[in-house]
Amino acid sequence: MAVKQKLMTTLQDIADQVKACEKCGLCKGRTNSVPGEGNPNADIMFIGEGPGKNEDLHGQPFIGAAGKFLDELLEGIGLKREDVFIANVIKCRPPGNRDPEPDEVQACYPYLEEQVRLIQPKLIVLLGRHAMYRFLPNDLKISEIHGQVLRRKGIATEMQVYLPLYHPAAALYNGSYRQILHEDFAKIPVLLKKID
Ligand code: URA
Ligand code: SF4
Q1: Global pTM?
Q2: What domains lie within the chain, and their CATH numbers?
């Protein structure tokens, strides 16, 4: 009798692959890779840039100062982390938090793509320009389109709704982004209702 085959990749499979991944040079400097975490049935997926120091130490996304602000933004619209899925473009911390190189982003992208395919979120919130340029044309400027809803072909669906926002870390350096982020976040519940 044939051995029963495992047909479905799960989010846990992806997390396991990411934890063991050596597809780019960032594997050498990491303490832990950070696959992402949250509700597998989430309506909303948040995508950041990549792990910082705290994330690398603990293997979880957005748990440092930017993460605390993200929690505050979520709470402001009545959501908890457990309601959404939080991931990053790059799963291992670049040394000294430098920008990820194009070849590193390229090597890592299939993991994020597969996460999006499995979760099939109604809304993808792109936090900062690194996440934005993975999904949207690179002639767009985040200063011009933050908080605007964009619809285009998705990874797994005919139509995907994207909301590009400033990265929460930007608000740590420049306080004026705090208010902008709160205002842009306030659009999320309304938008979700419209998508339904
Ligand atoms: N910044 C990011 O983009 N992602 C994290 O997980 C933490 C900080
Ligand atoms: Fe693998 Fe991505 Fe980590 Fe590179 S950054 S080693 S591709 S998980």
Answers
A1: 0.95
A2: 27-195 (3.40.470.10)
